[in-house]
Amino acid sequence: MFDTEKGVLMDRLEKKIKLVILDFDGTMGDTQQLILDTFQATIEALHLPLRSREACASTIGLPLVQAFISLFNIDKAEAEKCRDTYHNIFDQLNVKGAVVPFPCVIETIKELSARGYIVTIASSRGRGSLENYVAEFDLKNDIQFLLGVDDTVKHKPDPEPVLKTLTHFGIKADEAIIVGDTKFDILMGVRAGSLTCGVDYGNGTRDELKAAGATYIISSFSDLLKLVG
């Protein structure tokens, strides 16, 4: 495990990595405040029982319908109503510049792309929103494939987003590394049979990432360059 807390790298890469699959929220983009503000406004608008920001944060990484079911123990139809209200409020709050990339994200992705790695995104966010952020971050020429929540039948922590990406490029699971900030990202990668890398600056804790089975844990996005070589 590569753990920047301990500063140790043990050799786990038996094959050269060809594909880097990235989460977006909490890994590439610092969206937590915007997401939690939107959750709280949605709860208020729909007169739902109060939930703390911490409780809402624990669902980040899940599709919104599943997040609302988890928070309120409601049925799918009610959760879909919550999702739609959330989207409307999010669109109002999501002004240009509301979400910024974490340090070193843009430079590292461009360097990975320049070195010949395939860099993609697999997110529980909608495809349209992802496309907007990729354009805003000036990464349209560096991100080669996007999968949003509307592109898969099953979602994180199910491995379908990873498996679909592997199939698209004809790459084996052990030639890919999945990078994310929550246990849902790590579990998705583990279940696909890929290497996984947790980032500890996002929405999940270091202990959660370890418990989910992260192959590596890093504190700076730029440490990805050390992992893949």
Automatic annotation (TrEMBL):
Give its E.C. classification number: 3.1.3.18
One Pfam family of this protein, by short name?
A: HAD_2
User: Where would one find the signal peptide in this protein?
Assistant: none
One GO MF term on file is:
phosphoglycolate phosphatase activity
Pathways per UniProt: Organic acid metabolism; glycolate biosynthesis; glycolate from 2-phosphoglycolate: step 1/1
InterPro entries per UniProt: HAD-like_hydrolase_sf, HAD-like_sf, HAD-SF_hydro_IA, HAD_2, HAD_sf, PGP-like_dom2
Q: Which reaction does it catalyse?
A: 2-phosphoglycolate + H2O = glycolate + phosphate
Looking at the record's lineage, which domain of life comes first? Bacteria
Share an example GO biological-process annotation for this protein. Answer: DNA repair
Family label: Belongs to the HAD-like hydrolase superfamily. CbbY/CbbZ/Gph/YieH family.
**What name goes with this protein?**
phosphoglycolate phosphatase
Species this protein is from:
Prevotella bivia DSM 20514
